[in-house]
Amino acid sequence: MARGRRPGDADTREQIAEAARLRFAELGFDRTTLRSVATDAGVDPALISHYFGSKAELFATVVDLPVDPSVVIPRIVAGDPGTAGERLAVFALDLLTDEAKRTRIVSIVRSVTSAPESAAIIRERLTAELLAPLARAIGADQPEYRGSLLMSQIVGLTLARAIVRIEPLASADPRSVAASVAPALQHYLTGPVRPPDDAGAPGSQDGSPS
Amino acid sequence: MARGRRPGDADTREQIAEAARLRFAELGFDRTTLRSVATDAGVDPALISHYFGSKAELFATVVDLPVDPSVVIPRIVAGDPGTAGERLAVFALDLLTDEAKRTRIVSIVRSVTSAPESAAIIRERLTAELLAPLARAIGADQPEYRGSLLMSQIVGLTLARAIVRIEPLASADPRSVAASVAPALQHYLTGPVRPPDDAGAPGSQDGSPS
Q: Positions of the region Disordered (chains A, B) (predicted)?
């Protein structure tokens, strides 16, 4: 039924995107081929490149971020900057508690770790669209660096809690985890963070016996 | 030449282990079969189960931890407990800077995320043999919970820095990253961490405008 549509139709683009979403969700990044997406969407494979570029770009485009930065950032920035880490922690843990969102996040993190070269795009997006702007909105210096540090903790938490399930973290009460992780996130948001190219010693390592 | 050995020989066990190490390193956990390991080692597949149990157990046994807890723990515990997070951060970043060790760590983290159900064993081991004992040696309460929180940050850091390479974290000077991550690790080691089953609110969320 989709066959009669002209290429260039906005619907065609959406059909490709929807077929890609389903394939990526089902098979993951590696095992999804552009040819199979094209077949599912009833279009010529060349159209996919036309609309989306490479497979990695298609993936990055159709896998929506599980959160909307324009909603989340103001919510975390509102209030005392000294407790923003707590609000971010609660938000991240709530996401992992929501069944549908957790499934999407887990699928993204899995793709990211199994096909790092392509899925880096997703993580760059999460950092560039959500976490760095968050640090910037709070008025912190080095927002990009802080964003990538926040990312390392949040992705690690997702892995430990929802994918590999390391106990007792995996089964811990979400509010308890949020409270325990909040100071780390707060540090990355507003604490002293040394510039990435500053190679000075991190502190007094020398006085300790070995 | 190994064919003449009796089953039960300690050499047979080591031959299986060595064949498994090579296969896992080359193909990863999923694509390695016990049959191929048996062929490489010149033994009957049943011998593998006899010595090692399941494929997951074989994997956990032959993939050595990239660190020796009996060496690392005393080094991090020695000195002021208030700077142990810094020593742990420097140690973790040094590991990722060492080419050979980084390769092994990356291989372990990749297996862990691509085959979570089996490789959870590795992460449990890292937590149970290294990070929880570290928290215990420092005299912290809830060492297992602290160990799993430390794990979440260290694995996330490994992913961001060495696997997916999120910038500017990936290219940042290791000493700078260690200094920036140290307070988070210090918090997990000796800061206030709420028990995992304590469901109280993490703080004052209500006063902030929305």
A: 188-210
- The arithmetic mean of pLDDT across residues A175-190, rounded, is 96
Q: What is the CATH number of the domain that holds B46?
A: 1.10.10.60
Six token digits for residue B52: 């090692």
Q: How confident is the model at residue A205 (pLDDT cuts 50, 70, 90)?
A: very low
B207 to chain A: closest CA residue? A79
Asked if B100 and B56 sit in the same domain, the reply is no
At B153-200, the pLDDT tens digits run: 998 998 888 888 888 999 999 999 999 999 999 999 999 999 998 877
Tokens of B190: 């000796």
Q: What angle do CA B121, B178, B148 make, to 5 degrees?
A: 25
Inter-chain CB proximity B152 and A144 less than 8 Å: no
Instruction: State the average pLDDT for chain A.
Output: 84
Candidate from A148, A171, A176 with C-beta closest to B199: A176
Q: What is the ipTM of this complex?
A: 0.75
Domain that holds residue B47: 8-62
